[in-house]
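[Q] Does anyone have a clean structure-token version of this?
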Amino acid sequence: MTLIRQDDVIHSVADALQFISYYHPVDFIQAVHRAWQREESQAARDAMAQILLNSRLCAEGHRPICQDTGIVTVFVEVGMNVRWEASMSLEDMINEGVRRAYLHPDNVLRASILSDPAGARKNTRDNTPAVIHTRLVPGDTVEFQVAAKGGGSENKSKLVMLNPSDSIVDWVLKTVPTMGAGWCPPGMLGIGIGGTAEKAAVLAKQALMDPIDIDELRARGPANRIEELRLELMDKVNALGIGAQGLGGLTTVLDVKIKDYPTHAASLPVALIPNCAATRHAHFVLDGSGPAEQHPPRLDDYPAITWDVGPSARRVNLDSVTRDDIATWKPGETLLLSGRMLTGRDAAHKRMVDLLNRGEALPEGVDLRGRFIYYVGPVDPVRDEVVGPAGPTTATRMDKFTETMLAKSGLIGMIGKSERGPSAIEAIRKHRAVYLMAVGGAAYLVSKAIKKARVVAFADLGMEAIHEFVVQDMPVTVAVDVNGTSVHITGPQEWQQRIAVRGA
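[A] Here you go.
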């Protein structure tokens, strides 16, 4: 009978979470590289190049792949022959591992978990608690699958109760375009089929723990209906032309993973959960011999990628840019930003809009007249860093604030990730503002462009406080111009047509 010790669980969970914060799974790195090699859309190639460069930088620097270091999800299979040397419950052991990982002084991870979600939404400050799924199984070991799931991709999860005669493929193809690019493609789709509503969702999440193997499946051929479905969905989703970061291109998904379970004769539950370009998961087994060890990839496993914005990139001084200047920027154009910008996410925007609607002044240090705001919640700095990884958050969450911000604050530009919705695009067009896109999944790379950082307002919000950044040559793409033209609409439309013509 195996003896599992409390400290071994805590240490192993903490080590795994630190490990996955800066090491992509090798299968993911290789899949993105293959997609980059065959991609024909320059915008998509540039986005994937930044993701691959960021991945290697994080592996070398032991800093997070993404500023959103995720909500921890753990699947545990406990052998029924196991004995425990522990004073804590299994959930408490896991959460202590999470706490230690996220507060590690050499690689502080962003605390994103809020208690009282329908009320005060107060940050727990250590990213606990995790979401834990436990099964008792035959055996004398304890097996863990640990993941850190970013909010941008988790927010795009979908669940439907289809009729038994309905087409799963049709539903997925109708649903994926509604997800936009906030889940930071290219990534994986996890699909759960059967059981009940909650079982399908758990299956979809667990499917994302499997390695990318679609090319191997294609080479050997499908052996059952689920494998046939994976290949069909892989091809048809990529034919939508959404592409990396939603900019249009050949690769939207790197793999489609499916798990199923028997279901009621009257039911066909289907859940779809995407994984983003910050795919993070680890697997380990405790057998009583001590804590588990993670084995890092070799630097040789990372492709030799170089990326240059090119001679056509326009340099912009944020301290002197004017409305007349931004009116000359073209959709899809690459800019290199230098100068001062402010930051703000959901909580900060709500406070600012409430102040503006009451006719009150914004806090001292928050003067948005003629300025840009960056939608970001950075990781705390360590060692000699100015700021930790600081990639963009999903811009659509700020859509409902955009009209007020542009009308009342003097703001002329916004920076985030993924598309803007119709109301935000109309506000941008109406006020002759612009929206710029930074690459989601390249947070450490982006942080290298930030030369100074300080909190200027709402310090109580933690990572959601308003910062002032001084940046140098921060690369962005003009995603919505002053006329309301959005590359997240025109790009996928163009590439869907190209792919259709090619396949005709």
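[Q] Thanks! Anything notable?
[A] The chain has a mean pLDDT of 96.
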